[in-house]
Amino acid sequence: MKNLKIEYVHDIDCSWCPINYANLKTAIKALNDEVSVEIEFLPYEVKPNFKVEGEKISTHLMKLNGWNEQQHAEYRESLLRTAAQAGVKIDFSKRTHYYNTSLGHRLVHFASLSNKQAAMNELLIEGYFEKGLNPTKVDQLLELAARLDLDLGEAKQALTAQFQEPALVEKYQRARQITTRGVPALRINGKQVVIGTRPPEYFIDLLRNIET
């Protein structure tokens, strides 16, 4: 059995992060008898200067990429097709905005202290992409903490503290060591870096053949 440690760099509202993560999980499941994998989530904020109200997704992408409405529609269709292939649900009737995601990352880190970071990541994916959760809203994030039976007083303190915990700051720094080109990205056993979204077959081959 091969033991692997994967540092997974993601942002809460990045469309491709849950798709890539789903493909990675598919590969790990396929190699269940060959590899044992530990995943640590590292925070990366694509839009750190966004305010609480965020920005409409279509407006942001069209402005950022210089797209017209047709080009944006084609991108969205391609995204939804790729997401469906990975088993990821995105409901754009509810998921309408990009937001500042710093509090969402605080919540994932807080959950990691109870070994529940993967479960929290799943709840954030479901909440944001399927139900339109706003990750700047403390009350909405506390509802997720409650679903995992986390201490709500401690969770609120973590979300509302003036400064980030040193351990979370270190995670941000490590994420930037892995990628400055955006997310998703990951690093395996502190060595092999993969940036961008890959299919399950890619990860199966990589995890099976990587040297430890």
TrEMBL record:
Q: Which Gene3D superfamilies match?
A: Glutaredoxin
Superkingdom: Bacteria
- MF-aspect GO terms: oxidoreductase activity
- CDD domains of this UniProt entry? DsbA_FrnE (cd03024)
Q: Where is the DSBA-like thioredoxin domain?
A: 6-205
Q: What is this protein called?
A: DsbA family oxidoreductase
Source organism of the structure: Pseudoalteromonas xiamenensis
